[in-house]
Amino acid sequence: MLTEAEVGHYRDRGYAVPANYRVPDAALAGMRRDLDRLIEANPHVSPDAMFCPHEPDHGTQGLKGDRVWLEHAGTPEILDMVEQVIGGDFLLWGTTVFGKPAHSGKETPWHQDGEYWPIRPLATCSVWIALDAATPENGCLRVIPGSHRDRRLRRHRTNDGGHLTLNQQLEADEYSEADAVDIVLAPGQISLHDIYMVHGSRPNRSPRRRAGYVLRFMPTTSHFDRQLGAEIAKRTGGAVDFATRPLYLMRGRDVCGRNELAERSPA
Ligand SMILES: O=C(O)CCC(=O)C(=O)O
């Protein structure tokens, strides 16, 4: 569980790194094996950003995923921490492997997730699980503490440069990189961040891979709006398919009553 201070840090700074939690060694070894399999099964998809690996066959990347990633997403201790920050009614609406390979791993531009997610009102908690050590050298996640506080989407532009994992990028005058903090994680450590948080990561020019598995949770007081998702996908031309992706209730009930929930069948 998050300590009271960590919950306070999440509210005040927009992110938290639980000091006392590590994915247990055996589970972490399993995730790393599953990552090797995922990469091997998808030679046509860049490991830099693999969307929805928890779906066997979904999305515009043509990624061949595996239900085992949905099992990983349901780790009870992680769900407990998510509950602490977004309450007891929430669903999983996406996952991503950001698997920055050694030497060539792509940059993630500074952005706010809320810019291109069809959730209204905007509310999520992302959980970033370090499958490898994440350090400044191999392009760890970087955040601008407190940038979520005014709950305002800043100006973004589309940048389709092939060196980026995402094509939505904050305008340079919308943040100050001098305020950035590196989220350095040992394998198995996690961080949590808010939907308005300004964040990004540098390219990986080191000899060590930097893979993270990211879980996207939202409180069911919000609506995952598929129609809006289709419009956003059209506007951004992104690799994600918001219109058809399944939504899995992880805890509680669908409070707003408008989320179309999928069955969570076993792996
Ligand atoms: O891992 C990265 O480089 C980017 C992750 C990210 O943007 C996110 O989890 O929202």
Automatic annotation (TrEMBL):
It comes from the Bacteria. Keywords: Dioxygenase, Oxidoreductase. Its cofactor is Fe(2+). GO terms for molecular function: 2-oxoglutarate-dependent dioxygenase activity; iron ion binding. The keyword Nucleus does not apply. The keyword Cytoplasm does not apply. This is Phytanoyl-CoA dioxygenase. It comes from Minwuia thermotolerans. The lineage of its organism: Bacteria, Pseudomonadati, Pseudomonadota, Alphaproteobacteria, Minwuiales.
